[in-house]
Design brief:
Layout (H helix, E strand, L loop, with lengths): L1 H31 L2 H6 L5 H26 L7 H15 L7 H12 L4 H29 L8 H26 L1 H18 L4 H28 L1 H28 L6 H15 L10 H10 L8 H33 L1
Helix pairs in contact: 1-12, 1-13, 3-4, 3-6, 3-10, 4-5, 4-13, 5-6, 6-7, 6-9, 6-10, 6-11, 7-8, 7-11, 8-9, 9-10, 10-11, 10-13, 11-12, 12-13
Length: about 350
Amino acid sequence: MEVETQRKSIIRGIRIFVFLTILGICLVFYLTSSEKTWGVLKELKFSYFLLASILIVVDLFSGAARIHIFIRRIIPKGFWACFKANLANIFLAAATPFQTGGGIAQLYVLKRHKVPYAAGMTVGLLNLVATLSFLFFTAVVVLNTIPSKLTESKSLLMILDISRFVFYFILLLTFLFILRPGGFGKFVKWFSGFLSHTIPSRQEMFQKWNRNILDFLQRYQEYLKYYWRKEKLTLLLNYVLTIILYFNKCLVAYVILLGLGVSVNFWDVIMAQMLVIFFLYFAPTPGASFIAETGMSAVMSRVIPVYTVSIFMVLWRFFTTYFGVLLGSIVLLKTIADTDKK
């Protein structure tokens, strides 16, 4: 029953993702397309789309490598498990608000491959820290060097201000959890005691939750200390892979534009992409649907000819999101089905 509920919840989330995606695509085509738009399709250079496909393979493998470098001592030959976990992350992020389900899906798949929850959670947090710190650095650079034409829109500036607030808040919480997990444990202990006192009939259940969470935190801290003391090179490698991962995502957009025959400054595209990644990272809709389609179009319309925006947006979303979501759906739903059989 629980597995069936999970499956229904995922399907419902994907339906919302698809609906908002189609709505965003239709709106962008309505606002930006013209007779010249369809002429762009006649000038497609397919060799560049082959290159874009190779870059997506690099994206998927670098995402999996960020997981594998941490758990290789737990499952030495587990790169395929990490690859599936990364795909599951991409898929469930598209089916949940604020893309929060991605990390849960990653934990779920890793657990099926004998990786303890505490280890999987530690890996997820270390990757999150690497991502947030990298985005923080690039956001500072981009927002101070970006061409003024990209920030002339008042609505875009408002979105960036909101994104900054959410971004800094999540960054602070993440660092606090990593640096002061004991404080979180004290809060859990106090809260479970409060609930036990308030609802005596459920005292045993709350006490069990308390023991499980405190046990998890203890093991989590042991993994964290191990990586910090004995795997410093792994932490550095993780940051290098994070740079490769996100720069590669920006490079995909540039290659797509070359495939469309659009001549554009390389660094203008890279900075515009980093700007988009920054404000989409905590987008509230599943998989950033609608916001990604319209937001990317709003930014790129200041860099490339408006009549090419809609075609570029669809291709960009296909290579950077839709393809991974499709593969991830196969991986995660199959994992859930296999669990159901057991």
